[in-house]
Every structure is written in structure tokens, then in C-alpha cells.
Fold each of these.
Amino acid sequence: MAAPTRYLTQKIAKVLVWAAALSTIAVMVLILLKVLSEGLPSLGLRFFLDSPREMGREGGILPMIVGTAALTAVALIVATPLGIGTAIFLREYTREGRISRTIRFGTDCLAGVPSIIFGLFGFVFFVIYLKMGWSILSGGLTLAAMILPTIISTSEEAIKAIPEKYREVSYSLGGTKWQTVIHTILPSALPGIFTGIILSIGRSIGETAALVLTAGSSLLMPTSLFSPIRTMSVHFYILATEGISMKMAYETGAALILLVLFVNTIANWLLNRYVRHRS
Amino acid sequence: MFAIGVEKELMPQQDKIIIQDFNFHYSALHALHNIHLTIKSNEIFSIFGPSMSGKTTLLKSLNRLTDLIFRVRHTGTIFLDGKDIYDPEVDVTQLRRRVGMVFDLPTPLRMSIFDNVAYGPRLGGVNEKKRLAEIVEKALGSAVLWEEVKDRLNVSALRLSGGQQQRLCIARVLALEPEVLLLDEPCSGLDPISTLKIEESLIELKKEYTIVIVPHNVQQASRVADRAGFFLSGELVEVGTAYQVFTKPKDKRTEDYVTGKFG
């Protein structure tokens, strides 16, 4: 290739990758700007601490915040040990073979299932068959099934990335397989596993369709795991689609964004502290 | 430091490790061919030869780290103190505590200096703080590292220099008070001064341990070893005292390698 052509190609490539990166950022900024500019100005502390009145036309969203947090907690408490356990099984306790391929195929399928199908399953199985009703528990278990593939695959990647030499060292120092997992593999894989958990929290907070079917849309403050709730996303959806109050919908949206930012900041801070402590 | 040219007076020693008709295969690759070898207690035995000659495979067979590799098989046996280490009754974790290994590259675990050395004893059930502190101090002392790190035991092991990290790895193995030390090119990638320090500590350690070392070159083998075995393409070509093997090799191939004609 002649030198001028190569030079031109170089320039075009540069423009293209810059354009790609900038449009990605632009889309994100546009969404944030729209929601925050509509929701933030009227957002006050009262909004976070009040219960909704008149179907959500007035008041705040405290029950929704509590409900969202409880639901996410249930989902994580169930899915994290299961997911990490499966990842450890796949990487440390079994060789690549029919069993591991079947499990991986299963989780890949699970990851591709639309959330409304999870909702339908949760409704039929948890809500009706197990008689849990619309509740934090039904919704949390449904969410757990949804985030399980993410936790399994990110944990598996994190464990896979650990150099073989660490395993060898642990075994050569008389470690059993379980001791090696607990003392060497999990501590090294923790940052990666943590990333999966953060992604899962984001998905839990944002999920709507499956939760309308399994957690309900109650406006009341939950009192137990069997209470029905309305998550922030569901609240947003109902306020907007039923024409109750666009203003309150945007405020809920802005609160949702702030909440996600808050969780991510805390998580990153914890992660950095952990990584710095170990190096 | 021992010099070549003096035939060392060998103490009457017991046979620590006896390798009998040992063959090792990695799926299609026949890595070790009919190895017969006896290693005596309290000697430094050097396994040397060009790369791909099966040295590391033999070392890892001695504490069954080869068990971790997929699709391998072996025939023949290895005896440690007269007991077959491949006997199904053998507790592999116990075997690895008796036969400790140091790898070619320093591999500190991502934890403090203290925790690295205490790793093995803790897994073995030692939890008493005072006892652990004693073990760590003794092990670091034997590996000639105590003086350099005694004031910063809680610092991450990754902050040590390469030479210090490798001595830490030796200390980590010594903390288990093994009977046999396997060293796989422990000085590769280290500067001459660190190498010297490690070699010095080996001569000291010989009093208490049986040492099998794959040296990173012929010179190191001749400096530290009592006896040596030359490996080529998975075969044990020649065994003898270090003096004999390095100065008057019987086999033409050993001579060519020792004098630098290949390798």
C-alpha cells in the first residue's frame, strides 16, 4: 500500500473510533440530563422520607426505596452464594466435560430469557403454587434467578484469571482443595466477583416487568418478607403510563439514578480499599 | 562454599528417596524414561540438563504436584523413607508437607510477609499466635531473610525485591518443617548477589534437609551439589558425585553438555 493511502486510512480510523466513543458518551449524557433536569429541581429530602399520597400524585417514595432495597437484598443473598458456588464447581471441582458444558449452556440460556418470562414463571411458581403471594420473597427469588447467570459468569471469569501458580503454591504447601479455594482463590477473585454483584444490583434496581407480576404494586410500607411492595422502577412505570403525575415520575427517576450512583460509589470505594490493602 | 577439585568426604547416609523404573507421560508425550535414582538424606542432589529434559516433571512427581495436571499417567514407583508415595493410602497433603517445593519464579501470595510464611502452618491447624510467630521467625531466619524484613512483617509480600521474594518462598516451605526440599531453578531471574545468598542458605539447610535442586546452570550445580544426575530428553544419562560428573564425566553426552558444546 502506498504511504499516502496508509496515512489516510489511519486518519479515517481515528475519526471513526473517536466518533464511536463520543456517541456512546453523548447518549448517556442525554439520558441523564433529561431525567435529572426534569426531576432534580423539585426533588427534596421530603421526597425520600415521605409515603406517597393520592396514588403517588403527592408525597414521597419511602416505601418504594425500602421495598427496592429489600428485594435486591433477598435476590443477592440467594443468588451470590449459589452463583459463586457454581463458579467454583465449574473451575475447581470439575474438568471441562459434559457436566460443565451442560451447566454453562443452561446459564447462557437463562441469561438470554426475556425478563417477562421470569416474571411469568415467578408468578406461577412462587406467587401461586408456593402460595407466597405478591411479596418481597416472590420478587426477590425471581430476581435471584435472573441475576444468577451474571454472577456465575463473572465469578467464573475472575477465577479463571487467577494464575495457575497460585494454586500450585497452595497445594504444594499442603493445602487441600477446599483450603486452596478459601484462602487463595476466593481472595484473589473477589474484585471480579464484586463486579458481577454490582452489575446484578443495577439489574435488580432497574427490573420492572418481572416484578409487577411477582412483587405487586402496593403503595404501603412493607412489614415483612411476605409484604407486597412496589419498587422504584415499577412506581416510575405506573406513574408515567397511567398518567398519574409526570412530575413525580421524573422525580422518582432522578432518585433512582442518584441511588444507583450512590451504590456504585460505595462499592467502588470498598473495592479500591480491598485491592490496595492486598498489594 | 564448596569448590570443585576436592572430592568431598560423604557421611554415611540413608536412602531418602528411591525412584524405581519411573516413567511419566503427558497424554502423548513420554516425558521420563525408566528412571532409576536414589537420593540420600542430607545431601544436595542436583538434577541438571537442557530444557525439556524432564527435570521439573521429576521434581513435581516427588511430591505429586503432577496430580494437578490433566491427562497424565505414570508407571513405576517412588519411595520416600521406604514407603510408596503413590500408594492409594497415602495422604497427598501430608506428603506435600514432608516434601516441600520452591518454584522457578518467586510466587508470593497476595498477602503480608507474615501471612505468606504462616500460610502452610495455618492450613495444618496451627492457630496460636505465639507459636506462629516463632515458626515465622525461625523460617525467615533459615532462609536468610529475617534481618531484612523483621520490622515490616505486615507489609505485602509483593513489595519485596525479586531476590527477597524468592527467599520468602523458601521460608514459606521451611515453615512446614519438611524433610525434603525441591528447588526448581530457584535462582532463575535473580541477580548474582541474591543467588549467592540463596546458595549460602542451601549449604546451611543441608544439615537438616534433603535437597533436590534443578540449578539454572551448570556452574550453580557444581557450586552447591554433592551429587548430580544429568538428564537428557527424559533419560537419566549419568549419576555420580558432583566432582566426578562435572570434571570427569563418563558419558560423552554429559561431557558435551558440561563443557558447553550444546545446551
Note: Chain B has ten helices and ten strands.
Amino acid sequence: MAFFFEVLVTGLMVGIMYSLVALGFALIFKASEVFNMAQGAMSLFAALALYGFLEQYLHLPLWLALLCTVATMIIWAYAIVFIVLKRLVNRPPLMLFMATFGIAYLMEGIGQSIYGTQAKGLNLGIPDNLYEVAGIYISSFDLFFALVAALLVGGLVWFFQKTRNGRALRAVSDDHEAALSVGIPLLKAWTLTWIIAGVVATVAGVAWGTRLGVQFSLTYIALKSLPVLIIGGIDSIPGVIIAGLIVGAGENLGEASSAHIWAGAFRPFSPISWRLLFSTLNHTAFSAKRS
Amino acid sequence: MSEKREPILTAEHIAISFGGLKALDDVSLEIYPGEIMAIIGPNGAGKTTMLNILNGFYKPDSGRIVFEGRERPKHMKPNHIAAEGIARTFQNLALFTGMSALGNIMMGRTMKMHSNIFSQGVYWGFSRKEEIEHRKAVEEIIDFLQIENIRRTPASMLPYGLRKRVELARALASEPKLLLLDEPMAGMNLEEKEDIARFVLDANEELGYTIALIEHDMGVVMDICDRIVVLDFGKKIGEGTPDEIKANPEVVKAYLGTAA
Amino acid sequence: MFYRECGNFKDNYASDMAIFPIPLDRWGFIVMLFAAFVVVPLFASEYLIINIIIPFYCFALSAFGLNVLAGYAGQISIGHAAFMAIGAYSSFILYGRYGLPLIPSILLAGLITAVVGTFFGLPSLRIKGFYLAISTLASQFIIEWVIVHVHWISGGVFGTIEAPKMFIFGLALDTPVKKYYLVLCMLILLMTFGKNLVRGQLGRNWMAIRDVDYAAEIIGVNLYRDKLVAFAVSTFYAGVAGSLITFCYVGAANIEEFNVMTSFALLGMIIIGGLGTVLGSFFGAGFFVMLPIFINQGLGSFMEVVPADILSNIEAIVFGGLIVFFLIVEPYGMARLWHTIKDKLRLWPFPY
């Protein structure tokens, strides 16, 4: 039984990370009805930038490097909204969707031109020890990022529910035209969401980057979190969080129980099988609002 | 106009509600072959809902529809209903904007084309003959609606009035037994209205189409229609010839308020 | 002045409905065919044929397949490269393991791909737009996973099968030029077939579904059937393209050639080339294949040897930049630019 809980807890902690990445998608989708294929590239770029500030070029202290990384992502958000999206207002959503492909290519290309293509280790000085809590072993590293992710998720929920800007964003997501007519500037709202998505991408990129090394494959992390999005419903933030936990736990349990059969191969596959199962049944399982 | 004819379509006791709101409540109507029938009523009376039921977009909660003597099965798909011979136009235009006017009208013939995918890909023999044959039929409709000069224009670049006309052409191209028109003259100026009214009349008298239409312009309705059904708040409140409707106190009340 | 429609009267519908109703276009096409059949094999170097022109043709075929689905039928797919992989592996297995003749095994591989593609197209009956896009992305991962992990398919290590030697009627396809002719003939046959499909009844049905699906339904289009047919046709082309590119260019079926980045690239090709046009598939594929060469030439004047990683980074930047550029400035891609130029030429030099 202890083994089951251990796997479950680890799964839940990975699940939070999935929710975090999926949240980046959901935020932008809610605000601009665009499915942002550049989310993975943003994570990669953020991780690369942090590495650049920290070790490659500037050797800044950690807090300053993090701050500079976030600033970089904010500059990206402005550039994306004011150079690209501004000119695509009133186009069909699929056009915006494809534009994010272009943005993804651009970010990957520019990021790897500046920082190089080889894989880099990112060390933030977080201890990686195993602690025993009530008979369950927990990695301090996983725990740390799970906490950070949980804080960020909580902060975002608070932002959307309680603050004026958050309410404005929700208004925009409900109805673009109505929001414009009560004086919420669309571009400002989009910029804000892309900044938030940039911050989310930073945390996700740094977390996964420290775990797996900063390299091109980080962009796939975002793709892996897509099933979370589908199960949770793309327009529902609580749905995404719950789905992330379910997928994380389910994936880890599935892997553990069939470990000798699938020899670890189950891991990349299982989120997708989840997805296929759910999307064909009902494409917004947890979301009250049906599109 | 003998009263003894068999109706081409009968809708009996149709009721449908959306989230508790009764959009239609026990409405029955008949459409007779060869007539122009109008469904009128104030905004929100359920006119478009009725049309959506007739062509199969909505499934009524209760009631039945008999078309050409056969009762329609409960879950018949709109494309099968189209195959039975019901065509329609939309209130707010549903042209295929990525195609030319010609392509749109050719779409009206799509049900009548039967060559398989291999024959189409090779484009030789049957498929080629079929395509040319249907092109001829479409050209006749283009002539009829006088839109020869915009054949090759992309639908997205046409002005509003012409789009309406192309949509009418598309519906006519399928040679329906029953043609449903949802506000064919909405948003048009007087001249354009006259044009469309003339086309509708010609389609009815020269080509023999049975037409049911929704229209707000009472002048047009009274002039061109044989029979009128009046809906108000989802209920049928009147039915008859234009003269009978004009004299119907219920109808006058619904349109002008209680004072009349 | 030279490129014009007037004075060219059609006296029957057949000639009005031809692929090239304007004589100059017809001549242009014949010149292109002549160039492809005679000039290229005579004058192009082997390197050029193998590394540029064959992949260009194969990607054009595959991009056209995706264009059928995304550009004509409006069903975005971001898992198209996986279907190329199915074509590649199944033709290798049919030809290498079961000894079917080459052409039938390529076509049969296309059909197998079409069956699988239709299966993965099933979600399109329930979901649309982004949801469908994500579901096709899932099909990419599922197919990759199956190919790598089922040893009966992938055979060797890392999902790689070496290409067997190719024979058609006992004639060995051992030189680049012979392979080139195989690809060229397949390309022309299949593209003609495809062009006829998209300009005929089926193509119109697809465009109708793309533009207004409910209106298509009430005019009598069977949405379910035609969407699935679009998936089948589209993946058939992907399958054939996949098997041609592995037989004639890569030389070994390797799953890495068909990963999700290739799927993205295919989508980029049809955006840059032009959604919903046959010509656009050629433009997009040509652009994608030749981009590294242009960059090499451009940078070649600054440095002796361009390092591979810089090359691929600049490629990504240019490719991404152009996707964004075309979406903003000309959403219908290079093919529309081409038509605009032709429209101008039609009136030149008296534009009023």
C-alpha cells in the first residue's frame, strides 16, 4: 500500500507540473480563442535565457537572473502582440492558431542562435534528497517545484477571480466585442495574457529544464501536457488543474503497475491514451461550458 | 386552387423548447403543391425555428412531419431530408465564401452527381459527361436569375444583394420539391426586393416550384403569397389567404397591440 | 499584353472547364513538363537530383495531401508526417519482405495508410477546429509509438529498415536519374488525379464543408462520409509520398524522418505555399526544400563553411518569419501572389 501511495504522490507532483504547462495554453485560449502552439517554445526560450543570464553570458545571481528572464518573456509578449497578433485581429481563429506555429519556429531559431543548440545542465542549487514522510519517500526536488507550481496556480486563480485586470480578461474571453464595447482594450488584454503565459512558461521551462537539462526537447513537454487540456476542457481553469493531477497520478500508476510489460515505454504513451479515450467520449469532460 | 388537394408537406402538433422556453407550441401547418406560402409573425415568434424543424436541423420534442405522404423518421439527418427534395436559404447568408458563384451553384447539384472518386480523379467518360451536363443545368439557372456576369467572382467579393441571389440560385439548382426561403428580402432596398419578388414568382409560376417563405415586408407577402400562416410566441394564431389574414382580429392584435 | 483571355472564345462547357482554359498557361505547363522530363535529367548534377529535386517532389505530394485535408476540407491535421511513416514502413515491408512488385507495393502502402488515416479521422465526426488538431497530434504520437515498439513493423534497431534494391520489371533503379523518373511519373499521375478531384464534385463538397458545414449538409452533402473521404485521400497521398521519399531519397525507413517537426513543417509549407491550391503545395514544398540552399548561398559570402546548427537555426527563423508574414500579408500564400501577378499581366501594359 505504501508503494501505491508513493507512486500516487509522485504522480500528483508531476501532475501539478502538467497542469502548469496546460494552464499556459488554457489562459491564452480563454483570452484570445487561440490555441498557442508556441507554448513549448516559450518554455524552451525561458530556460535558455535563464541559463544565459546565470551561467553562459552574465553570471548574475539567481534572483536577478530570474527577474531578467521574466523581463525577457515580457518583451516577447509585447513583440508577439504588437507585431503579429495586432495585424490578425478579426481574422478566423485558425489563422491565429497557425501564426503561433510561426512564432514557435521564430522563438526556437532565435533562442538557439543566441544560446547554442547543445544540451545544458541547469543547476539552481535545489537539493535533491529523498525524505521519508509517513512511510512514503518524496524527492525534495519534486516537492519544491510542486509547491512553486501550486503557488503559481493558486495565484493565477486569485488573479482571475479577484483583481480588476483578471475580471477584464475573463470578460474578454467571454465575448470579444462586448468587452471592447465596455472599454476593455483588446490588445492590452492580449498582452497581459501573453505575459502571464510567459511567466507560466518560465516556471515550467525552468522546472523541466533543471530536471531534464535545457535542450530542444523541452518544446515537447508542452505537447505532452495537451491531453491534460483535452480532459480538463480547454476553457476551464479548474478543469485543467484537476485533469493535470489525474493524468500525472494515472500515468505514474499505470507505469508502475505494468512496468515489466511496457518497460517504461508507457510513460510517453499514456497521456495520449487518456486523451483519446476522453475526447471521443466528450471533449470537455470537466468543463461546464460546452463550445 | 381547389381545397381538396393533398398537401406536399404536413406538420402536425409540432412542439419544441429550448431550456424551458417554448419556442413552438402545438403548431400544425400544411404546404400544398404549387403554392407560395408565407410564415409571418413578430420577432421571436418561432418562424425560423419552424423552418429549422422542416429541414431537419432541429428535432421537434413532439409532433410529426409527413412529406409526400411518408412520415419522416425521428432521427433523419438534414442531408437525407435534402435528398428527399427540401432545399432552403438562410436569413443571414450561408454562402461558401471560398468558392466562386458558379461553384456555389454547382453545389446545389451535388446530390444529383453520382460518379465515384476514381472516375472523378481520372475525369474521363462518365464523370466528365456528368460534370458538363450539370454545368448546363446550372447555366440555365444563372440565366434565369440574371447573374451571368458574376459567375467567376468569389462569393466573398459579391455585394449583399447578389449573395442573396446566388444563395437562391444554389437552392434552385437542387430542383427541390419544396423550397424554404428564410427572409429572402431582408436588408434589401426597394429595387432589389422587387427583383427577388419577381424571381420567386417566376420560380413558382414558370418552373412550378412549391415555396414556403418567411418575410417581414407585409406588402410583398400580401402581393405574392397564396396562403399565410401567422405565428406569435410559438403558437399559430391565424391561417388563410391574404385577405382573410388582413381581416383576422387576432393577427391585427398581435401586430398592432391590444389597442386595435 | 501577351498573357490574356480575350480573343479566346470557348464554344462548349468542356473547354471552359479545362484545367488550363488560357492557351498561354497550357503552353507554360507543357514547357514545365519538358523541363522536368528532359532538361533536369540531362543537365542537373546527381547531387541536385537526389538532395533537392526528389525531396521537393515528394514533399509536394505530401503537402498536397495535407492541403486536401486542411486547405480544401478545412480539417487541420498536425500529425501528417506519421502517415508518411506508415506509407514508408508498409511499402518496405510489402516490397522487401513479401516481394510484391515495386509500384503495387507503393500504391498498396498508400491504401494501407488511407485505411489507418480514415480511422484517425473518426474524431472529426464529433469534434472540430482546435480539438481535432490536437487529436491529430495524438495520432502522430500513437503511430510513432506503435512503429517503434512493434518489432514486426520496425524490424531493426531504432525503427530503421534498410532499403532493399529496387527493380521495376527487372530493371534496376540504381542511378539517381532512374529514381527521379519513378518519382516524377508518380507525381504527375497523382497530381493530375488530385487536381481533378479538387475541382470536381468531391472538391466542391470539401470546400463547402470547410466554409459552412451546416449549409453543406442541407444542400445534401453527407458530412461524415466526405470528411472521412478527405482523410482517406489525404493520407493516401501522405503514404505514397512517404514511401517514395524513403525509397528514393533517404534509403532507409527511419521514424526520425517523420517526427512531429516534419508534421509542423508540412503545415508551414501549405501556409506559405497557399492553402487550398494545388500550385501552393508545389511552392511551399519547393521553398522548404530549397531554403537551406538559399541560406547557404547567402551566408557563403561571409564565411567559408556554414556550421550545421547555425544553418538550422536560421532556417527556423526564416521559416517561422515567413509563416507569420504570409498569414498577415497574404493569407493564401505564394499561390495567391502568383495569381495576383497573372492578373496584373492580363492587363499589362494598359492597366486602365
Note: Confidence is low (pLDDT under 50) at residues 257-291 of chain A.
